[in-house]
Design brief:
It holds the Pfam family PDZ_2. This is S1-C subfamily serine protease. One of its GO terms (biological process) is proteolysis. This protein has about 290 residues and is mostly beta strands. The protein is built from four helices and 22 strands. It folds into two domains: about 200 residues, Thrombin, subunit H (Beta Barrel), CATH 2.40.10.120; about 90 residues, PDZ domain (Pdz3 Domain). Strands 1-2-3-6-5-4 form a six-stranded antiparallel β-barrel. Strands 7-8-11-14-13-12 form a six-stranded antiparallel β-barrel. Strands 16, 17, 18, 19, 20 and 21 form a six-stranded antiparallel β-sheet that branches. The termini are far apart.
């Protein structure tokens, strides 16, 4: 009886897993000609990486069965990097979702190019709790992959060793692979289906950091915005948000995610050298790219 070859066994297993996952993955070419991948989420809907999908023109989609279709961009959620495209994909069953993996677990990133499936093997390099993106979106868990993600794989499926869907493959600013978990995708898809867009919180303030001095100075107050209604004035210095110090624009931006809309918040300010508190109800601003 021939001896088992663990490396050959692993190779056969990964090849089979890629082939199975590839039945749910499409190639996407946006209106500007950039190639990326997408996942068939359910009959008629494809999810892909919002940040890589240039413009709102229809995208060309290559299905696993070889058909080429035009796909309308049905919605974009820049806070979670999820875009939804509509196309006649048929009744393909969705990939089974997986929970969050452990550090050291092996994953496969599966995409599709013009000539067929694409794949990369990656170890889970780091995990963590739910986090807030720079655009204010809630991501249901941190999963960082130990690879630099090729552009054509962005928007593809990240699967675990059982072939279950961990989430959407995206890249951070250094091209390091990240996973947008399935729970986050599902929430964005349902919000886009119900509302057509994902809004962000809006104060109606333009703020400027003060360098080494804590706080952010108000340099513009939108006449019809929530801050104007709350009585903000030019020159006010915002120092706290619900009692927590704020010293950067990013700190404000992270607090103005989709879940913030309609909330009443207490902002600490300095006005004419004296401390004050102002309550403001956060408004909604629909995302406009750029």
């Amino acid at each position: 009886m021939p001896e088992s070859n663990p490396l050959a066994d692993l190779s056969r297993a990964t090849s089979a897993a890629v082939a199975a996952a590839a039945r749910h993955v499409v190639a996407v070419r946006d209106g500007q000609g950039r190639p990326l991948s997408g996942i068939i989420w359910d009959g008629g809907r494809i999810v892909s990486a919002e940040e890589c999908l240039g413009g709102d023109d229809p995208a060309a989609v290559l299905l696993p069965d070889g058909r080429e279709l035009s796909a309308e961009i049905a919605g974009r959620d820049p806070t979670t990097d999820v875009a939804v495209l509509k196309a006649e994909t048929g009744d393909a069953p969705a990939l089974e979702p997986a929970g969050l993996p452990e550090v050291g677990a092996l994953t496969l990133v599966v995409g599709r190019g013009a000539d067929g499936p694409l794949a990369a093997l990656a170890m889970v390099a780091a995990t963590g709790p739910a986090w807030t993106s720079a655009a204010g979106g809630r991501i249901d868990g941190l999963v960082r992959l130990g690879l630099l993600l090729p552009y054509a794989l962005e928007g593809g499926a990240v699967i675990d060793a059982e072939g279950r869907l961990l989430g959407l493959a995206v890249a951070d600013p250094r091209r390091r692979g990240l996973v947008i978990p399935t729970a986050t995708i599902a929430r964005s898809v349902e919000t886009l289906a119900a509302r057509g867009h994902v809004g962000r919180g809006h104060l109606g303030l333009a703020l400027r950091p003060l360098g080494s001095t804590p706080g952010l100075m108000v340099v513009e107050v939108s006449a019809a915005g929530p801050a104007a209604a709350a009585g903000f004035l030019l020159g006010d210095i915002v120092t706290t948000w619900e009692g927590e110090p704020v010293g950067s624009m990013r700190g404000i931006s992270r607090r103005l995610g989709p879940d913030s809309v309609g909330k009443d918040v207490r902002l600490g300010i300095i006005r004419a050298g004296a401390p004050h508190e102002v309550r403001v109800t956060i408004g909604e601003r629909r995302h406009i790219e750029g």
